[in-house]
Amino acid sequence: MKKINYLVYLLLLNVLIFDNSIYAQYYTVKERILHLQTFDEKPLHYGYFLGFNNFGYQIQYKSNYYVPNNRNFPNNERGLNLPNIELIKNTGFNVGLIGDLRLNKYFNLRLEPGLYYTQRDLIYPTPTSGLANDEDYLREVKSTYIHIPLLVKFSAKRINNFKPYLVAGVSTSLNLSSNEKNNDDNYSNVFRVTSQSFNYEIGFGIDFYLVYFKFSPSIRGIFSIQNELIQDNNPDSPWTSNIKSLLSQGVVINLTFE
Predict the structure, then answer these.
(1) What rounded mean pLDDT belongs to the chain?
(2) Contacts of 168 (CB under 8 A, 6+ apart)
(3) pLDDT at position 67, please?
(4) Cys-Cys link to 118, which of 12, 92, 95, 223 (CB 3.0-4.6 A)?
């Protein structure tokens, strides 16, 4: 009987010690030191970002692109029966500045002008008529954008030293490598696109409040709303005559420091 009472005593003691340990850990989490407690109360603040991007194109083809070549269309056109143009996306980089205007506790208006560099490769299908040399089947579309988005940031309630958020808005991109005013075209290995495009953007991220600054990794999608393709001078060009429109689509990862 004494042995049983002794075991019960030890069990209760262990439970009590374990209970106190759990409570101490919970208490530590709840009482974590908050960094930059008044940071979000500033009416206006600035920062900068570094990041990576991956841009592609949504390619929309002419109506006769996929269909068999024995089918007739108006104006004596015939179906081309071609496979899709292969699109290879390359990872680029971006850098820029941030201006943030506080609207209220949960909403901020942000301007994030930046420089984005990216490259997309278009590989044309082998059956494409009019392509003779190996270099004719590849077009490297290099783009250097001055990207200017105007965004609304919606933040959740802060939890200790982090806070998730959503961001959405519109933007314009000025392409310094567009070749829009170049008289040469794909017959001289020059792929031309418009110098300016308009987009909408949506994304999410997390604000981390560190001792001296706020660090915010985020991911965002950028979607063009207008055709960026400039047709070649020859209306029967094998590079552009079969394409109805090109719409840029990109994924951007930014590391923000504020």
Answers:
(1) 86
(2) 151, 152, 154, 200, 201, 202, 203
(3) 60
(4) 92
Encode pLDDT of 154-165 as tens digits: 999 999 999 999
pLDDT for residue 62: 84
The pair of three-digit structure tokens given for residue 232, joined into one six-digit string: 């070649």
DSSP code string of 206-248:
EEEE-SSSEEEEEEEEEEE-S--B---SSTT-TTTTTEEEEEE
pLDDT computed for residue 5 by the predictor = 44
Q: Does 10 score more than 70 pLDDT? A: no
If one compares 75 and 42, the residue with the highest pLDDT of the two is 42
Q: Which residue has the tokens 């949960």?
A: 106
Task: Report residue 46: phi and psi, to 5°.
Answer: -130, 170
pTM of this structure: 0.81
Written as one letter, the residue type at 187 is Y
